[in-house]
Structures are given as C-alpha cells and as structure tokens.
Amino acid sequence: MRSMLRKAPGRFKKIDRKLVGAVSGLPGGGHDDFFRRLSAAANKGKLWIGIAAVMALFPGRTRRAAVHGLLAQAVASAVTNVGFKTLLPRARPLPEHLPAFRFVHPQPTSSSMPSGHSASAVAFAVGAGLVRPALGAALAPLAAGVAYSRVHTGAHWPSDVFFGSAIGAGAAMVTRKWWPVRPPFPEVRRSTVAAAKLPDGEGLGIAVNTLGGAYAEETAAALQKVFPKAYIKEISPDEDVAEEISRVAGRPGVVALGVWGGDGTVGTAAATAVEHSLPLLVLPGGTLNHFARDAGTPTLAAAVEAASRGEAARADLGLVAVERGLPDGPEMLHLAMLNTASIGLYPNLVRRRELLQPALGKPVAGVVAMLRTFAAGTPTTLVVDGVRHKLWILYVGRGRYYPRDHAPLVRPVLDDGVFDLRLITADESFARLRLLWSVLTGTVATSRITHLSETSSIRVEPGDTSMVLAVDGEVMPGVRGVEFSVLPRALTYYSPAS
What we know:
This protein is of the alpha+beta class and 498 residues long. It has three domains: 2-178, Vanadium-containing Chloroperoxidase, domain 2; 193-314, Probable inorganic polyphosphate/atp-NAD kinase, domain 1 (Rossmann fold); 340-471, Sandwich (Tumour Suppressor Smad4). Helix content is 42%, strand content 24%. A six-stranded antiparallel β-barrel has the order 8-10-9-13-15-14. The chain is elongated and about 95 Å long. The protein starts with a helix and ends with a strand.
C-alpha cells in the first residue's frame, strides 16, 4: 500500500508539468506580488486564525462557524503534515519550472505532496460553510486563491493542491459529525385561552420580591405607573414570600396574580395561582427571567399588552416532593417547578456559562464553561428510578429544552406533559477524558456518556447519605430523596397572542 502511494504522484507528472507550464507562461504583473503575499499570509494557518478571530466578534452561528472552521483546519493540518507528507515524499517544483521573479523563496523543505496550505484553506472554508453557508460562499474565493497561490509561486505541483484540497474538504465533513450542525429549533406553540382583561391593571394583584435580581427602589412606583389600578405588595426580606404571595392572591377583587422576582419566586407564585384558580402574569423582574422569556413576556411592554387584552395560554406545572434530613428531624417539602432542576455540577456549569456568555456568546460560552467545570469536578453517585449511576450531571427540565446537549437554552412548548431528563454519566472507563472530548468535538448529545429521555415522573435518591438539589435556582442541601411529577396544563399564564 505504501509503495502504491509513493508511486501515485508520478502518474500526474505530465499533467502537473503541463499546468505549471501554462502558469509559467502568464505575463508578470501586480498579481505576482498579490499571490506571494496571500500565500505567505496563510503560513501556519495565520490567515484563517485571524479571520476566525473577526468572526468570533459576532455571536450566534457566525461564532460557531469560526469554531467549526478552526476545528476542521486543525484536523486537516494534522492529517496532511503528520500523515501524508511522510507517506508521500515528493520533490517540489524547481526554479527552472517558473519565472525567477515568481518563484517563492525560500522554498519549503518538506514533501510537496500534499499541499498543507490548500488543506487548511478548504477545511476552514467548508467547515465554516457547513454552519453558515453564506460565510462558506464568501470564503470560497479566498480559499481557492490560497490554493492557487501555491502553484503560482512554485511551492507545489497542481496535483499536490488538488490532493490537499480533498483532504481539507474531507476533514470538514468528518468534523461535522464531531461538531454537528444544530437542527432548527421547533416553532413556538402555545395552547391559547382567554383570561380576565386587566385594563390599567384593574383586578391585578402584584407581589414584588425585593430580593429579586432586577429590583430597585423605584420598581414598585414604575409598576404602579404602568398598572395604575393594580394592588402592589412589596415583600421585604424579613417576610415569608409564599405567605405574602398567597395573601395577595386571596385579596378581595383580585382576578389575576402578578409576580415580580426571580425564578424561585415565579415558581411559588405559579403554585399559588393554581391553588386560587387565577391566571398568572409573569413580569421580568429576575436576573434571567427564564419563564417570562418562554411565556412570551420577556419585557414589561409585552406583559402589559397581554394583560390588557386578556390573552393567555396553558402550561404544565412540575410538582417536586423533597425529603430532607435536618439536624432537628426529617422534613417534607412540596414545591412547584416551572423551569429546571439539577443535581451534580450543573449549577456550577450554568453560573460559569452565564458569566462568559456576554463576551463569548451562548454556544462558545457553554463549551468553555463545560471544560472548566468538569476539568476539576467530581461525579456524584445517585439512584435514578431504581438504577444506580455515577453522574456528572442530572438535569431535569420541565418540558423539552433545545438544543439536545449539555447547554439547553430554549423551550418552545410549555404544555408537552413531560420532563426532559438528561444524565451525563461517569460510569464508563476514562469518563473525564470522554466527557472533555465530547465537549471539544460538540458530540455531547450523541456521546455514550449522555443519556436523554422523556418521562412524566422521576424518583432520585442519593447513593450515599444526602445530595444537594437545585430547583428553579433555589439550592437545597441535605436531600435524601426527591420525586418529580407533572400536573398537565394546570397553570394559566398571560402571553401575547402574537
């Protein structure tokens, strides 16, 4: 096989010399300097790294395309320089084959077959194009220019360039499996219902948690200005949030419950709204406003619009029964869950991702946060529905979240009747290396360490003495057991019909 590979370049010798002769016959001009500079700019991938750095300034798919392009380029470069250049030793063109003013100096000393510049150029362009086709099309002429410049300057024979380009395209396609293009998220779907219209907030009782992430001294006054006829209760730090929200809901004349606060406060208000058969108006008063975003009221203006028109929808409510062991005896808690719950390293992952997200964007921040979290973290032993696991993460989403990997972001449907259960296990050999590799290659969703399922009930117990549980951002230590169940379409929440 090796001897056949060594003989392969000779088969193209006549074609190579004919094509190089055609290039040699081209008249000299400014294009000679252009291709010489372009070829030099691509040395050691500097051109593509620079372009990727510019692309990284733009969040979303552009930044993701940059990462995929660099990954494909790295693979193509390694395969070309470490593998094929050793298997296929070949002399480069000689000075007599091209005009002296065009010939690259000094000429590379490595094997001419295949062209590493061409492999990297095509790998980056195709890799980026698999994520953003428009970017791939824009990069294609530049990649072709780099590939041609290697013939124009006498660094390679044409067949070297064709072979290198094929390696680059192949590397991009292979890394697509490692860093798969995310399928489009499902469209938002809501089960719309009519609710009480609240012109100027008439009949609306609003509970404001002063410990909410977005609370300020002027919050209550600002809400009163928007809802002049609403009753507004500010809950101070020394008051019980659940009790005060219940009092607001039970106040005479209240036909709808509003809440301003974080995810934990919103969950408490949701349970109260269901108990009192009231529609819930979620105002964006928390740091992240997960449910308000999914409900279609990420801004105060959207919430006002829905409330004034009486536009609403149905959502499932998660029920969480928590058994805790405290120094003064066991405790049983019954909580409402609107968004997510987790055990293990997930809270640390989320905190890191949210800190990095403004600078890096969601996808890249998720990867960096994952690497930092699991490089030093330790797994937890849990019994999930009777099966013992060693886990990095147990994640429970109230409803299907997307994407289907380690960084769920979007929940298009709020009444699908299921929990989104994700286990990232450490049961396998070389668990940490498997995990870090799957993060680097974007294959967390398809890795053997990731287990995705949907269920309407879950029972989790610690493998040892106790565990730490987080429900909608509220952390509870000393948990000895927890059960999750779904109350279908129990919550009516205001949501703009548009």
